[in-house]
Specification:
Helix content is 54%, strand content 10%. It is α/β, with parallel strands linked by helices. It folds into three domains: 10-158, 3-Layer(aba) Sandwich (Rossmann fold); 164-224, Helicase, Ruva Protein, domain 3 (Orthogonal Bundle), CATH 1.10.8; 229-318, Zinc Finger, Delta Prime, domain 3, CATH 1.20.272. The strands form two sheets. Strands 2-3-4-1-5 form a five-stranded parallel beta sheet, sandwiched between helices. A two-stranded parallel ribbon has the order 6-7. Helix 4 links the parallel strand 3 and strand 4 (134-140). Helix 13 packs antiparallel against helix 14 (303-318). Residues 1-15 have low confidence and may be disordered.
């Protein structure tokens, strides 16, 4: 990550890792720690696709150089999350000395919020007892699921979703390298489809580029299979005008012909509500109704029946009831 003079080496420069674009504050803080060849226990928290695992790997490679594999253990807590893993794999690795001029090894626990409470309690003691020979880097989507004693033992770094300008830098670099043509509308759609997740953004771009090197909004829409805002607007306009039947038919058309799930339709409706020409207090009530409908769909109710109930609320709102 940084050489002896404090300058990032070319091999591990953050700009070469797309998902670290936009995380400059975190990178600067971590750089100052690794320059001293010492780090505390670290907790990386934030949404997926924002560079948590990438940064952990860069830290380890910069600390241990060619010996990084011997001094690094990576466990995915989604697969191995019981107390036995902490007692056996983690403890046996943590109690042995490191190879090289760094005094400790590093254990990276990916998706640590999937660890059971019992495993977290065992991990807490392991972090305390073997702090001289081992450092832990924990990665999670929700830091609230990590028990307080572990959080207090860690330096916490909160990753944020990438902004549009950051994702555009990634797209421009890929387009230049792969000879792709991306127009501004397609760029906007790619970002909306990725929702700030760099990994998801690159996957969407790759899937689209496999169809054609000229990236268009229609191609992206085909790949991500999300409800088009203009189609959702038609559904809501029919409902607000009082035409429940046409609104229902258009909704069914979107869900069946374009294979859009109920949850995706709900998200599109929630976004479109705030563009409707209705009073703010009505928008608030409809947003509340949208949240209730989404909860029912998640709990297992029939999506189409629940969405019909939702558009019925829009009809009543249009009639002033």
């Amino acid at each position: 990550m940084a050489n002896s003079s404090g300058i990032w080496t070319e091999k591990y420069r953050p700009s070469t890792f797309p998902d670290l674009v936009g995380q400059h504050n975190i990178i600067e803080r971590v750089q100052s720690l690794t320059n001293s060849l010492n780090i505390p226990h670290l907790l990386f928290a934030g949404p997926p696709g924002t560079g948590k695992s990438t940064l952990a790997l860069i830290i380890v490679k910069e600390l241990f150089k060619q010996n990084w594999k011997e001094n690094y253990l990576e466990l995915n807590a989604s697969d191995e999350r019981g107390i036995n893993v902490v007692r056996e794999k983690v403890k046996s690795f943590a109690r042995t000395k490191s190879i090289g001029n760094v005094d400790f090894k590093v254990i990276f626990l990916d998706e640590a919020d999937a660890l059971t409470p019992e495993a977290q309690q065992a991990l807490r003691r392991t972090m305390e007892n073997y702090s001289n020979t081992c450092r832990f880097i924990l990665s999670c989507n929700y830091s609230s699921k990590i028990i307080d004693p572990i959080q207090s033992r860690c330096a916490i770094f909160r990753f944020k979703l990438l902004e549009k300008k950051d994702v555009e830098k990634v797209f421009e670099k890929i387009a230049q390298g792969e000879g792709l043509g991306i127009n501004p509308e397609a760029m906007e759609m790619l970002y909306e489809g990725s929702e700030g997740d760099c990994r998801k953004a690159i996957n969407i771009l790759q899937a689209t580029a496999s169809i054609s090197p000229s990236i268009t909004p229609d191609l992206i829409s085909t790949v991500i299979s999300s409800a088009k805002p203009k189609d959702i607007k038609v559904v809501l306009d029919y409902a607000l005008s009082g035409d429940f039947q046409k609104s229902r038919e258009k909704l069914l058309d979107i869900m069946l012909k374009e294979s859009i799930s109920g949850q995706d339709v709900i998200k599109a409706i929630q976004k479109e509500i705030w563009n409707l020409p209705i009073e703010p207090d009505i928008k608030v009530k409809l947003t509340e109704k949208t949240g209730e409908t989404e909860f029912r769909i998640v709990e297992g109710s029939d999506p189409f029946i629940q969405l019909q109930s939702l558009i019925a609320s829009f009809v009543l709102a249009g009639l002033g009831k």
